[in-house]
């Protein structure tokens, strides 16, 4: 699954990194893409330069290959101290609401609501995330109405609340519950949010997360295979 989903991006990175480093950005790319590298605050300027470098290169190489791509930069929010997000433990049972982990049975539901979803590759990716990483959803009479999960980087992603249940604070509650789970598992608490998703950005700030300079570069091919990759 991973080789197919990230095919275009991986081939492009391999092609670029085989060349001699002629610029500072290429040197940074070689340095930070080594196996086992750990990113800290001191790496942020370098990572940002590397992402800008790859974004421009991906656009150029995609145009050369007649590959129609959609490139998005997502903001990154991070909670520096390991504490329960939101300050107070969330009440897990409220009237008909029940908090629980997402079941693989809801892969299609999550995929249909995801900005980068609605294709076979994205369904496989959502399924992998649900089966392999922590998640949280709110069930109303047994049906998910709000959810969030961890992606393969361990970041909170795919936050969604069905339209009829919005403005009730469910999104912040599922994020708080997932943060509690992540804290108990000694996982870092951070997330990626689309540039245009202002409500989610404000919500995560209210939950105590701070915006960083680093951004997630998400590349999606609009070809018939609908390949997706990220940096």
What does this structure look like?
Its EC number is 2.3.1.-. InterPro entries: Acyl_CoA_acyltransferase, Glycine_N-acyltransferase, Glycine_N-acyltransferase_C, GNAT_dom. This is Glycine N-acyltransferase-like protein. It is an enzyme of class 2 (transferase). This protein has 2 domains: 73 residues, no CATH class; 138 residues, Gcn5-related N-acetyltransferase (GNAT) (Aminopeptidase), CATH 3.40.630.30. The relative contact order is 0.20. The protein is α+β, with helices and mostly antiparallel strands and 231 residues long.
In short:
The protein has 231 residues and is an alpha+beta fold.
User: Ranges with pLDDT <50 over ≥5 residues?
Assistant: 1-21, 28-47, 84-90, 224-228
- What is the CATH class of the largest domain? Alpha Beta
CATH H-level superfamily title of the largest domain: Gcn5-related N-acetyltransferase (GNAT)
Helix content: 25-40%
The 3D shape can be described as globular
Count of distinct strands:
9
CA distance, first residue to last residue:
17 Å
Query: Roughly what is the average pLDDT, rounded to an integer?
Result: 76
What share of the residues does DSSP label as strand, in percent?
25-35%
List the topology elements:
Blueprint: H1 2-5, H2 7-18, H3 24-32, H4 44-64, E1 69-79, E2 93-94, E3 97-100, H5 107-113, H6 120-132, E4 135-140, E5 143-150, E6 156-161, H7 170-184, E7 189-194, H8 198-206, E8 210-221, E9 228-230
Antiparallel strand pairs: 1-7, 1-8, 2-3, 3-4, 4-5, 5-6, 8-9
Helix pairs in contact: 2-4, 3-4, 5-6
List the defining traits of the structure above.
Aminopeptidase; GNAT_dom; signal; glycine N-acyltransferase activity; alpha+beta; single chain
């Amino acid at each position: 699954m991973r080789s197919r989903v990230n095919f275009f991006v991986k081939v492009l990175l391999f092609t670029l990194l085989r060349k001699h480093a002629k610029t500072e950005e290429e040197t940074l790319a070689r340095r930070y893409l080594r196996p086992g590298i750990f990113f800290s605050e001191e790496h942020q300027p370098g990572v940002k330069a590397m992402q800008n470098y790859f974004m421009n290169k991906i656009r150029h190489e995609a145009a050369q290959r007649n590959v129609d791509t959609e490139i998005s930069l997502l903001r990154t929010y991070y909670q520096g101290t390991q504490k329960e997000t939101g300050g107070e433990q969330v009440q897990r049972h409220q009237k008909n609401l029940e908090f629980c982990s997402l079941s693989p049975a809801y892969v299609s539901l999550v995929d249909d609501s995801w900005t980068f979803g609605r294709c076979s590759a994205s369904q496989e990716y959502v399924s992998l995330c649900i089966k392999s990483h922590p998640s949280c959803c709110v069930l109303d009479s047994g049906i998910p109405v709000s959810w969030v999960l961890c992606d393969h980087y361990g970041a909170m992603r795919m936050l969604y609340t069905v339209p009829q249940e919005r403005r009730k604070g469910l999104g912040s509650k599922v994020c708080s519950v997932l943060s509690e789970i992540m804290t108990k598992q000694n996982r870092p608490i951070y997330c990626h949010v689309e540039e245009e998703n202002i409500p989610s950005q404000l919500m995560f700030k209210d939950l105590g997360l701070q915006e960083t300079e680093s951004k997630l570069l998400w590349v999606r091919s609009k070809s018939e295979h609908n390949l997706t990759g990220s940096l």
